[in-house]
Design a protein that fits this description.
- This protein is of the alpha/beta class.
- It contains six helices and 15 strands.
- It folds into two domains: about 60 residues, no CATH class; about 170 residues, Ribonuclease H-like superfamily/Ribonuclease H (Nucleotidyltransferase, domain 5, 2-Layer Sandwich).
- It is about 20% helix and about 25% strand.
- Strand 4 and strand 5 form a beta hairpin.
- It is globular.
- The relative contact order is 0.13.
Length: about 260
């Protein structure tokens, strides 16, 4: 299958089982392009990671190209998905966030965090993917090789995590998160009652544009998360999602 690297945009080939037909080093910028004003009141674009121009050679490299596991258009058929079941008639509220690393078949779950409505940690585990990891994505995920090594007793398989979560989250549970379609996809869980902060807090340009969780937290909660030089923390992100929705509900109630 011909894929496009999500970092350098070069094409590469990988089999449906995640085996690379050719291992080619990927050179890329991990930061984002932004506009900078010059002395002559002109603008040029440069990367946040190294200050390089839009035409500059990447400042970071990885042994292979990577992709998300999702392509434009129709995806699937998907296998190994489980559905949440009705356990109780009393709905509960949870916030969920996942960290992911790259394998040959795309992004794979490497950590999952679930917190309760009161912010209490309910469930958190590292997860070892079935496929070999080609990039831990540590800069953003915070995941390292030691986190999911066989010597770490806190590591579980995806099947074990699914079994655990189905005992916590039932079909009536309200699940809060940011970009939840990505979290549920790597968890391989089908759940219908979701509140997604990337949708609730609408972008001025409309869908499919979405604000980042970092931006929303800074704008509405007046707090900084995912600071430069620091990896994402699934516990911090889950709590930010929960607090954003509490802020939204409280604000809407006061206005009405």
């Amino acid at each position: 299958m011909l894929k496009q690297c999500v970092r350098c945009e070069r094409p590469f080939r990988v089999t449906s089982s995640g085996v690379y037909l050719k291992r080619e080093r990927c050179t890329f910028h991990w930061g984002k392009l932004y506009k900078v004003k010059t002395r002559h009141n002109n603008y040029h674009k440069q990367y946040t990671c190294c200050g390089g121009s839009s035409e500059s050679v990447g400042c970071t490299s990885n042994p292979v190209h990577v992709w998300t596991g999702v392509v434009s258009g129709i995806n699937g058929p998907y296998g190994g998905f489980v559905h949440t079941r009705r356990i109780t008639d009393k709905p509960k509220v949870y916030a969920l966030d996942c960290e992911m690393s790259f394998i040959g078949r795309g992004l794979a779950l490497t950590k999952v965090t679930v917190i309760a409505f009161d912010g209490r940690l309910v469930y958190q585990h590292f997860v070892r993917p079935i496929g070999a990891i080609v990039d831990y994505n540590t800069r953003f995920s915070g995941i390292t090789k030691s986190d999911i090594s066989k010597s770490n007793k806190r590591v579980k398989t995806l099947a074990e995590v699914q079994r655990d979560l189905l005992q916590i989250i039932d079909a009536n549970s309200i699940l809060i998160g940011h970009g939840l379609e990505n979290d549920l996809r790597v968890l391989k869980i089908v759940h219908k009652t979701v509140v997604d902060t990337s949708i609730v807090f609408k972008h001025s340009n409309g869908f499919p544009y979405r604000h980042s969780l970092k931006h929303l937290t800074k704008t509405y909660l007046k707090r900084n998360i995912q600071l430069d030089g620091q990896s994402h923390d699934s516990l911090e992100d889950a709590r930010a999602c929960l607090e954003l929705m509490l802020w939204k509900v409280t604000t809407d109630k006061q206005e009405n």
